[in-house]
Amino acid sequence: MVVYADLHQQIVLFLCDRVTVLFCPAVNQGPIVQFKLSDIGEGIMEVTVKEWYVKEGDKVSQFDSICEVQSDKASVTITSRYDGVIKKLYYDADATAFVGKPLVDIETESGSEVIQEEDVVETPAMAREEHTHQEIKGHKTQATPAVRRLAMENNIKLSEVVGTGRDGRILKEDILNFLAKQTGAILPPTPFQEIQTPPPVAVKPPPATPKPVFTGKDVTEPLKGFQKAMVKTMTVALKIPHFGYCDEVDLSRLVALRSELKPLTESRGVRLSYMPFFIKAASLSLHHFPILNASVDEGCQNITYKASHNIGLAMDTSQGLLVPNVKNVQLLSVFEIALELNRLQVLGASGQLGTADLMGGTFTLSNIGSIGGTYAKPVILPPEVAIGALGKIQVLPRFDAAGQVVRAHIMKVSWSADHRIIDGATMCRFSNLWREYLENPASMVLDLK
């Protein structure tokens, strides 16, 4: 092998038998940076790498998805904050990755701005400030390095720009539109680059569970992700003394009302189930019994009454049992609740529920009847103090006011409450009010705000 080199070029000649191979120097590249797993929050220190969206040698740009990771609380998509080429993947799929450790090495493009700041974490619905920030008079303005560079080159103060991105993040389009207003230029419309909530679609039932196959040997696997979270949650939950209460609800009028409203909501692109009515009725009832929308501290010395009704829905997904919640139900209409449920169901079916969707619940309903069964013994999700399990709706004979046997749509409900702070009479009265709203759905109109 003979090597010739000077300050401007390197030509490497490989002589093998009678063949001479000539390699020209590659285009100058930028530095290789280690893309580290940033702090996802909630005390999470490790995650499982569910899927890689890139491989070594792939070219990526800012905000391109790199991988999906799963903690014991939510699935999170990690996106790139650099333009460059993937040089190394530090983990295989299903491996455990640790916060603060490198995920990938990225060879950045020559001349690109490399700022060692917190890595970008994308989730379907985010509660944290995940992008780089600029401190302006005590206010954090969210913008990526590329957007800040564009603003700097055009002498634009980020504090004067209104961000249209998620959580007020300033996008490239916001800078260009601001510049156009200042100069009077007319810019062509640009496509909206933010992650949009998927349009509501009918959620397909999960595929039939395949029959177990006997392999002839024992298999041991570590508990990971949501399974690991369930172990911790249920261990804490079963330390709570549960009080159970069951009743039945005649939903005949609600069935008729839903049949009447269903075509209208479908014309608006929203699938209307019974759950929005169950959730709204629960919120209206919680106004009268706020102790059911409370939490107690670990030593059960203090009780906190929650102002928001963040009502969770236990959801069966391919990842296991998840409980996303609808935020501020007390401020939402039945239609708005249905719209939000559609969004959560689409995300749940695709395994894309984010931390913000799963955290902050104050009260939970479990619709076990969508799978089967009439009664259940639901387990409280701490720090909540109450939960309800809804059975399937059955057409059963009942007596009307005139003593005639009629067809009735009956649903069983099973409640569990923290008996340290909630007595049986309170749980019973709450259930009675909730039942009255559902048996006479028109009465909900009187209390809607």
CATH level 4 superfamily of the domain at 236-446: Chloramphenicol acetyltransferase-like domain
- Specify the number of helices: 9
Strand fraction = 25-35%
Task: Calculate Rg over CA atoms.
Answer: 28 Å
Tell me about the largest β-sheet.
7 strands, mixed
Q: CA-to-CA gap between the ends? A: 83 Å
Text of the CATH class of the domain at 236-446? Alpha Beta
- The general outline is globular
State the oligomer.
single chain
Average pLDDT rating: 78
Count of individual beta strands:
23
In CATH, the topology of the domain at 236-446 is named Chloramphenicol Acetyltransferase
CATH architecture of the domain at 236-446: 2-Layer Sandwich
Unreliable runs:
1-27, 115-139, 183-203
Q: What structural class do the secondary elements suggest?
A: alpha+beta
Fraction of residues in H or I helices: 10-25%
Domain Peripheral subunit-binding (PSBD): 142-179
Domain Lipoyl-binding: 32-107
Cofactor: (R)-lipoate
Family: Belongs to the 2-oxoacid dehydrogenase family.
